[in-house]
Amino acid sequence: MNYHFPHQRILGLKELEEKQAQQEYVSRKKRQLDLEEERERVQNQKEKMRLEFEQQPKKTISEIITFQQWIEYMDKEIDFIDFLIEKAVQEVEKQQEVMLEKMKDTKVWNQWKERSMTAFYKEEERKEQLEADEVAILSHFRKSLSF
Predict the structure, then answer these.
(1) Rounded CA separation 114/8 (Å)
(2) CA 80 to CA 60: how far, in whole Å?
(3) How far apart are CA 80 and CA 121, in angstroms?
(4) CA 143 to chain CA mean position, Å
(5) Which residues contact 135 (CB under 8 A, 6 or more apart)?
(6) 3-class secondary structure for the chain?
(7) What pLDDT shows up at residue 134?
(8) Which residue segments constitute the domains of the chain, with CATH numbers given?
(9) pTM, rounded to two decimals
(10) pLDDT (tens digit, 0 to 9) for every residue of the chain, 147 residues total?
């Protein structure tokens, strides 16, 4: 006889919730990594422009002021990206907790299914053994009566 877990639909739902939590975690982690790459790109752009500016032999006051304003703008841009990265890290950590909770929940349900299935098959084995014992007793009894 085949075993059917009576709460298979609930287990299926728990597995689906776990999968969705994992996908959401991956999505949030990707967002964090994208922001970190963006920060690095902006930082590199700022550094490149700074080096180019420093290599110019003569600079007018207007060029110096414009460059300083541009550096301030880039610093603000980097600060804003840092703020977004900080929020993204918090979201990743929060989603990781959700994902781990869903994984734990699914594991509990799977363990329950395993224990339930083991108990079912042990009971089936016990019943089969009782039937085999009964057949053996009846067979022995019939042989005893036929003598």
Answers:
(1) 12
(2) 30
(3) 61
(4) 65
(5) none
(6) CCCCCCCHHHHHHHHHHHHHHHHHHHHHHHHHHHHHHHHHHHHHHHHHHHHHHHHCCCCCHHHHHHHHHHHHHHHHHHHHHHHHHHHHHHHHHHHHHHHHHHHHHHHHHHHHHHHHHHHHHHHHHHHHHHHHHHHHHHHHHHHHHHC
(7) 93
(8) 8-146 (1.10.287.1700)
(9) 0.78
(10) 799 999 999 999 999 999 999 999 999 999 999 999 999 999 999 999 999 999 998 989 999 999 999 999 999 999 999 999 999 999 999 999 999 999 999 999 999 999 999 999 999 999 999 999 999 998 888 888 776
Q: Could you tell me the two tokens for 128?
A: 């089969």
- The two tokens of residue 2 are 């085949």
The pLDDT score that the predictor gives to residue 102 is 98
Which residue is listed with tokens 């902006």?
42
- Identity (one letter) of the amino acid at 147? F
Query: Tokens representing 83?
Result: 């703020």
Neighbouring residues of 53: CB distance < 8 A, sequence distance ≥ 6: 59, 63, 67
